[in-house]
Amino acid sequence: MIDLSNVSWKYPHAEHYTLTNVDLHINAGECVVVCGASGSGKSTLLRLINGLVPHFYDEGDLRGRVTVEGVVTSQADLEAIGRRTGTVQQHPRRQFFTNTVSEELAFAMENFALPVPQIAEQVNADLQILGQNMDVSVPLTSLSGGQQQQVALASSTAHRPRILLLDEPSSNLSTEAIAALRATLERHRAAGMTIVIAEHRLSYLNGLVDRVVIMDSGEISAIWDAERFAATDDAELESLGLRGEVCAAQLATWPAAGLSIADACDVCDVPEGALELRNIECRAGRRTIVAIDRLTLPRATVTALRGSNGAGKSTLARVIAGLRRARGEVRLDGRKLTRGARQRASALVMQDVQRQLFTDTVEAEIELAGRDAARTVAVADLLQAFDLSKLTGRHPLSLSGGEQQRLVIAGSRLAGRPIVIFDEPSSGVDRRHLESIAAHIRSVAADGAVVILISHDEDLLARAADQQITLRALHQGGQPAEERASTAVSSGAHVAL
């Protein structure tokens, strides 16, 4: 089905090969997970299978041979490979070609000239499923990162490929959405589809995958069968830089939600140093997507912002950072902030960090982030802390997803802003670097900033967060939710949504 024979690949202008002498055979109908540290070559291996290497990345050096269903990918055109494969990228927004959910679902089928009745039937079936968890009538750009990932998965399988490739598919998903992802993968596997997943989070894949391929510095260091994977404990996974289950005892130390919104607002005073939101309302057209009566976030504290995909977490972050208009009032240390003032006071690490990379080298990117700040950390120390010292001359867009994530997070430390927001900062990050990111987030809070951590990653939350707030979507499946209420209230934070 899929064969990589002594394959090596070096990207254009790179000093070293990303993959070296890789031999791998994947049988038809197998489910294989590829894991390893950030930058170990997982995404590149997927690009070799779907033909992006060498047809899109066409100036590098490819050695060896890759065949998919007997077709040599370097000699075939992308259409022939595309009919056989569907791909869900780590950041699905990069693979969208249309503006709406229905158009995106139809896009691949239209390109392959499938019959119109078949296209309509498949689109309607997918819309019914997706519509249970999101408003499918809004533009794709209005959906959350997790919702976009669900659309990308549906659109990538709509033309019924025999091979499905997924790059970090759980990175932006809530616990409920991960369960739905697994159910979808089980359905495709039962139908005979060959599935290859590049992933750091492995616990949800136990019992689903046939083999685990472990990458290390561009080479395959080990291959486990399903029994070996099932017998692996968290200690062994951590020793390999992989992600296992979150320790329940860690999460149990979080403050429990105990007060109703009304009680909390009556008895809790605003801390002397805090960010305060009052009567915030953000709309998209006629729909209210975020509505907050009162929310207080103290300085020197990491506040975790939680909620299902589409609950409004990233939208709220953009409102706080002054990147999105909203009614209401935002105050810092008792002083009202205009949108412009909030932009100057905030540092935001987005879900798709590639949108925040502007320069030609890693070192220049760090320098740009701290150009207007009174630096408390030396650039060299920061590069060392985030394991970027050997990458200073690399172009930021040539880095792996996890390396790009660490680069933007490192830059946020230099910015020295009083409000720092991290939106899914552990996406594409391995175990070792997860720990350094958690330590960095806590150090930003220790410097006195208001720190907001948006994440579905229980492991990161357990390591970094002091308190949690859970947002509930105002609309479910395009319909207003039954309640305009808050969920968790802890450590004096209040929210009504």
TrEMBL record:
Its predominant location is membrane
- E.C. designation(s): 3.6.3.-
* Entry membrane topology: Peripheral membrane protein
Q: Which UniProt keywords apply?
A: ATP-binding, Cell membrane, Hydrolase, Membrane, Nucleotide-binding, Repeat, Translocase, Transport
Q: Where is this region: Disordered?
A: 477-497
Q: Which residues form a coiled coil?
A: none
What does this protein's UniProt record list under function? Probably part of an ABC transporter complex. Responsible for energy coupling to the transport system.
Protein name (record): Putative HMP/thiamine import ATP-binding protein YkoD
Organism in which the protein naturally occurs: Dermatophilus congolensis
